[in-house]
Specification:
Bound molecules: aspartic acid
Strand content: 15-25%
Low-confidence stretches: 1-7, 30-52, 226-230
Oligomer: single chain
Helix content: 40-55%
Radius of gyration: 31 Å
Order of helices and strands: HEHHEEHEHHHEEEEHHHEEEE
Number of helices: 10
Length: 372
Amino acid sequence: MENSGFYSIFGKSFKIMQKHRILTFILLIFIAFGCKNEHTASSEASVSEEKNETKAPTFGIVIHGGAGTILKENMSDSLEAAYKAKLEEAIRTGHEILKNGGSAMEAVTKTINIMEDSPLFNAGKGSVFTHEETNELDASVMDGATLNAGAVTGVTQIKNPIDLALSVMNDSPHVMLSGKGAETFAQEQGFELVDPSYFYTENRFQSLQRVKEREAQKADAEKMVFTDPFIKDAKFGTVGCAALDKNGNLAAGTSTGGMTNKRWNRIGDAPIIGAGTYANNATCAVSSTGWGEYFIRAMVAHDISALMEYKGLSLEAAAKEVIQKKVPELGGDGGIVSIDKDGNVAMEFNTAGMYRAHMNAEGELVIGIYSE
Ligand code: ASP
């Protein structure tokens, strides 16, 4: 009995010890794994911290206020200062949006709004006059992430056509709306229509009168089409913007009053996706300005993207190829601004000047007018 008692006590203690050993063993395994996981997690964190340190997401923005015969000798100091100040105000608006993590599209449209509201540029408020002494405005936007796009042409009562182009993209199943229909859509979307007299500026009206006088002086009036040199020399002044946001998304937009003395509801390149505006996250975002007929025929904005995508050209090389070779060989002139998916920028033009500005992620600002 004693023995059996002893053995049973011993047996019980042995079992308890065994149980504890197993528990201890399991505990040790948990601790070991816990430490390992902690270690892995912390080393992953430090790797990603390192990554963040070395690779802060880049962003950038570039704008134009039109290209053309813009010569220093024809510009007063005060006008030059006014252009530079407005370009700076516009680009800083978009840059701030991008710096705070806003989208490329928001930066593009808000930046263009500033220029549309200024009489200095041929877009919105400062739009040029048609032959019939009216103003017909065109605009387009494109989103490089989705390849979605929106455009309006020939609108006469929209204060900021770039906003309507964005609404066509976001709120309609279409890409391009024109004239009265575009304005009906605008009203349905809650846009306020302005009286067409909003677009009257004395400067632009006088430009039209000068062009008309020269037109009248021409013996062969029937040849008065857009191949005439005086139309070519008419100041451009379209506005445009291309941006890259911190998420790697690209967007572009262009807004214009078109060309002075245009007739027959003429439409230029600005509202044509692929000609005046193009954006593709795989390549770049482009906004054009210049002699629209040639920019349509050369499909300028898309051609730059295509040269990068299919031929592997850099943005700089692609922009040079199209603006310094293809467009002039056809007989056209003008320029583009563009930013690629890595934040590289091109501001290429073959005219005497192009109002332009660029700001990078570091906040460095470049503003230019002439072809220095
Ligand atoms: N490209 C515009 C057009 O042909 C004009 C401009 O860029 O100023 O309508």
